[in-house]
Amino acid sequence: EDQVTQSPEALRLQEGESSSLNCSYTVSGLRGLFWYRQDPGKGPEFLFTLYSAGEEKEKERLKATLTKKESFLHITAPKPEDSATYLCAVQAGGSNNAGNMLTFGGGTRLMVKP
Amino acid sequence: DGGITQSPKYLFRKEGQNVTLSCEQNLNHDAMYWYRQDPGQGLRLIYYSQIVNDFQKGDIAEGYSVSREKKESFPLTVTSAQKNPTAFYLCASRRDRNTGELFFGEGSRLTVL
């Protein structure tokens, strides 16, 4: 069974204090790993897709990296407006995933204090 | 602007009543999805549709029903058979039915009184 585990569940940072969020996954044949940002009461907003180990993508203060077992979302010098829940999802390519569904992790709630 | 529109944003229901949540997209995407989100939990798939007039059950389909009569629309009915319907419901679409990112609507929060 495909599994996605995000850690920590919650993270408090001071403004400017860089850190990383972790997404560990177990899937049969990764077809894609997705990062989303979700603000309270809103739908998730797409950030990145990673397809193969070693791949990296950046957007402003965020950088996502991928290995064969996990992905990290690095936040450099965060600002209060980066406060949100960050979700990770994977799409498996095995025969058990005929519908090509995404499996989501529980999310990391990030709070950045000024 | 292209996007996904969910309505209503907030809905209150008495026990025993069916309610229908609307989801409309103008992105010309083939595939559409309904997820349920509970506090502290990941998104769980209720139903999905990869083509008009066809849909499949997800992981937690019991107590829910859907239809896909038009490419743009994928309404979700929460029936009285759903034992714990209070939740945040998210509709999503994907351009390619086989791969790629999902695009989400703003969500509908259902509260059963």
SSE layout:
The complex is a heterodimer of chains A (114) and B (113).
Chain A (H helix, E strand, L loop, with lengths): L2 E5 L2 E5 L4 E8 L3 E9 L6 E6 L5 E4 L2 E5 L3 E6 L8 E9 L9 E3 L3 E6 L1
Parallel strand pairs in A: 2-11
Antiparallel strand pairs in A: 1-3, 3-8, 4-5, 4-9, 6-7, 7-8, 9-10, 9-11
Chain B lengths: L3 E4 L2 E4 L5 E7 L5 E7 L6 E8 L2 E4 L6 E3 L9 E3 L8 E8 L8 E2 L3 E5 L1
Parallel strand pairs in B: 2-11
Antiparallel strand pairs in B: 1-3, 3-8, 4-5, 4-9, 5-6, 7-8, 9-10, 9-11
Could you name the key traits of this structure?
heterodimer; A: 114 residues; mainly beta; six-stranded mixed beta sheet; B: 113 residues; seven-stranded mixed beta sheet; four-stranded antiparallel beta sheet; 11 strands
Structural notes for this entry:
The complex is a heterodimer of chains A (114) and B (113). By secondary structure, chain A is mostly beta strands. Helices cover 0% and strands 58% of the residues of chain A. In chain A, strands 2, 4, 5, 9, 10 and 11 form a 6-stranded mixed sheet that branches. The model of chain A has no long low-confidence stretch (mean pLDDT 94). Helix content of chain B is 0%, strand content 49%. In chain B, the strands form 2 sheets. In chain B, strands 2, 4, 5, 6, 9, 10 and 11 form a 7-stranded mixed sheet that branches. Chain B has a 4-stranded antiparallel sheet with strand order 1-3-8-7, with no helix packed on it. Classes of the chains: A mainly beta (114), B mainly beta (113).
